[in-house]
């Protein structure tokens, strides 16, 4: 009885959480006269919105940019964070403790504080209006991922590494030959998290990207919203079609990699 | 042996090198740079001109700073507690859902994957005062919903309501914490005749207080920097000014406009340091409070 009430409550919550997705897809398939009607099913059915927005803006270019930037960001941060985490987990040296404390401290640092000076750095070397600033910082590891992967490496049986060390394997061999393959689930967690972050981020594209040809999908979507949304030509069905295009890949990514997202979320707090 | 440990030490530092370079180039260096910039006027055309504390004096007098601070505080005070309470309630329900928990976890987490700009576009319409689905729903119960997206008094509550849709990641974190609370404690409490409510206060909450505290700190820091959804909804390329008065002008939005709209890099740097001080102060207060209320004994933390 009590169990049934719990499930009923959760079911109502689930409906409330799924509804905006349903509404989005449905409204993106309605014509201009019906886009506000909140009907569950689109009538008349107007898939032409997708064609229209495809013609109005370079959606395919933006998707391509997002894929490139997302993959670069995710690959870079996964490998660099793994190397740093491996250094913290496997080797003993003076200053290791305080240094790791510093890594954790940077997690608490508000990103807004470095927004302006980092922009000026990229400007100084002539890359401020390219896509490079969107991923290049990831080459140097990221505190949260270093923390997460260090947990992973510490969880591996240390005898394996000790035996290999005695056999004279170089640290680099230990890293590429043993640590990386053994920590693969952890690497996947970092990869999918960063892919999602890069795919959904608006802040950096707003700061750095000037030409529409370089836009990532969120920046392009903001341009679509400005042009066809509230202040613009009021063609909301196009805005919603583009929103659906931006959202669907992330939903699919989650359905494929759900356990990695959950694992990453849960590891956030094991300090 | 000394040579072995020296080799080990060198290898360790080599692996850390990327992070050290990144820290110097993208954190420590920029912070020093911005501290100096905050004492200058710099528009990227002429070289920076030293003006002492003038930017800070201006920030104190700037009415938009006052508005932005008020808006940000208002949002944070509403957003953080509602997020935490809802996440806790949902996690508690999922904890009792048995095998169905996995399904609900998926459903609750999905909104977290939505790009914030898409979320902004959707909720501009869902929250619309005239024909939005949310007010239609309220209408079923006889309520007339407010103009969430145009009435300055309701813009921030609307943004808070919208933020609840992405409560899933916090709820998933709590669910994991709840499953680490030993079941024996609940049995003991039940034997003592404790009601479910008392069990929650005396077993559940102490058992997960470390996790709750962590999420309060992280959520507060993020909330004080709220930017993307509000910017996407109410600010744009054509108008730097929000149409809804300044109801959605949050601190980082103001900072962003000063820096990249007006190219006042020195002033924006001073604003950034102001935010840094505010966040550090708020976090310090939370750390102090945690010493009194957070119990770590039950958790493997």
UniProtKB/TrEMBL annotation, chain A:
Transmembrane segments: 67-91, 98-120, 132-153, 174-193, 238-257
Family to which this protein belongs: Belongs to the binding-protein-dependent transport system permease family.
GO term, biological process aspect, one: transmembrane transport
Keyword annotations: Cell membrane, Membrane, Transmembrane, Transmembrane helix, Transport
Predominant subcellular localization, coarse grouping: membrane
Domain of life from the UniProt record: Bacteria
Identification of the protein by name: Sugar ABC transporter permease
Protein's cellular compartments: Cell membrane
Membrane topology summary: Multi-pass membrane protein
GO cellular component: plasma membrane
Domain ABC transmembrane type-1, residue spans: 63-257
From TrEMBL, chain B:
GO cellular component: plasma membrane
Subcellular location: Cell membrane
TM spans (from-to): 12-37, 73-94, 106-127, 158-179, 200-222, 265-285
InterPro entries referenced in this protein's UniProt entry, alphabetically: ABC_transporter_permease, MetI-like, MetI-like_sf
Any Pfam family: BPD_transp_1
Broad class of where this protein is predominantly found: membrane
This protein's record includes keyword Membrane: yes
UniProt-listed GO biological process terms: transmembrane transport
NADP is among the record's keywords: no
Membrane topology listed for this record: Multi-pass membrane protein
Keywords: Cell membrane, Membrane, Transmembrane, Transmembrane helix, Transport
Limits of the ABC transmembrane type-1 domain: 69-286
Family (UniProt): Belongs to the binding-protein-dependent transport system permease family.
Protein name, as recorded: Sugar ABC transporter permease
């Amino acid at each position: 009885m009590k169990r049934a009430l719990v499930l009923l409550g959760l079911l109502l919550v689930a409906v409330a959480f799924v509804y905006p997705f349903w509404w989005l897809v449905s409204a993106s398939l309605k014509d201009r006269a019906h886009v506000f009607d909140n009907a569950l099913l689109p009538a008349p059915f107007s898939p032409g919105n997708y064609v229209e927005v495809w013609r109005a803006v370079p959606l395919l270019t933006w998707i391509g940019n997002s894929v490139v930037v997302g993959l670069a960001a995710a690959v870079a941060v996964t490998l660099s964070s793994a190397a740093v985490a491996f250094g913290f987990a496997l080797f003993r040296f003076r200053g290791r403790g305080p240094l790791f404390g510093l890594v954790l401290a940077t997690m608490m640092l508000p990103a807004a504080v470095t927004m302006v000076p980092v922009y000026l750095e990229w400007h100084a070397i002539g890359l401020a209006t390219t896509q490079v600033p969107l991923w290049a910082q990831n080459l140097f590891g990221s505190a949260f991922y270093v923390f997460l992967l260090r947990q992973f490496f510490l969880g591996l049986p240390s005898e394996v590494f000790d035996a290999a060390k005695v056999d004279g394997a170089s640290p680099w061999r230990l890293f590429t030959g043993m640590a990386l393959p053994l920590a693969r689930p952890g690497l996947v967690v970092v990869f999918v998290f960063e892919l999602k972050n890069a795919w959904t981020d608006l802040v950096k594209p707003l700061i750095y990207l000037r030409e529409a040809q370089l836009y990532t999908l969120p920046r392009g979507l903001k341009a679509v919203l400005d042009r066809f949304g509230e202040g613009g030509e009021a063609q909301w069905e196009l805005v919603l079609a583009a929103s659906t295009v931006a959202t669907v890949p992330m939903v699919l990514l989650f359905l494929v990699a759900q356990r990695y997202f959950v694992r990453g979320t849960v590891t956030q707090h094991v300090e | 042996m000394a040579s072995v440990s020296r080799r080990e030490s060198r290898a360790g530092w080599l692996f850390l090198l990327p992070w050290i370079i990144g820290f110097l180039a993208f954190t420590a260096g920029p912070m020093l740079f911005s501290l100096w910039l905050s004492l200058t006027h710099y528009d990227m055309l002429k070289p920076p001109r030293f003006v002492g504390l003038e930017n800070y004096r201006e920030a104190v007098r700037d009415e938009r700073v006052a508005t932005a601070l008020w808006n940000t505080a208002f949002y944070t005070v509403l957003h953080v507690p509602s997020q935490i309470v809802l996440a806790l309630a949902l996690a508690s329900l999922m904890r009792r859902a048995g095998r169905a928990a996995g399904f609900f976890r998926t459903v609750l987490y999905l909104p977290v994957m939505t790009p914030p700009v898409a979320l902004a576009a959707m909720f501009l319409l869902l929250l619309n005062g005239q024909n939005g689905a949310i007010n239609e729903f309220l209408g079923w119960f006889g309520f007339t919903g407010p103009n969430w997206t145009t009435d300055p008094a309701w813009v921030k509550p609307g943004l808070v309501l919208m933020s609840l849709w992405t409560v899933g990641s916090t709820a998933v974190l709590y669910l994991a914490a709840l499953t680490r609370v030993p079941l024996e404690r609940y049995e003991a409490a039940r034997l003592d005749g404790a009601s479910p409510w008392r069990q929650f206060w005396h077993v559940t909450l102490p058992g997960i207080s470390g996790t709750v505290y962590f999420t309060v700190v992280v959520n507060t820091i993020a909330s004080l920097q709220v930017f993307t959804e509000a910017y996407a909804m109410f600010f744009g390329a054509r108008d730097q000014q929000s149409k809804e008065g300044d109801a959605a002008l949050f601190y980082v939005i103001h900072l962003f406009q000063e820096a990249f709209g007006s190219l006042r890099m020195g002033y924006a740097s001073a604003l950034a340091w102001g935010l840094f001080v505010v966040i550090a102060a708020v976090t310090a207060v939370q750390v102090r409070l945690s010493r009194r209320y957070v119990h770590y004994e039950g958790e493997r933390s």
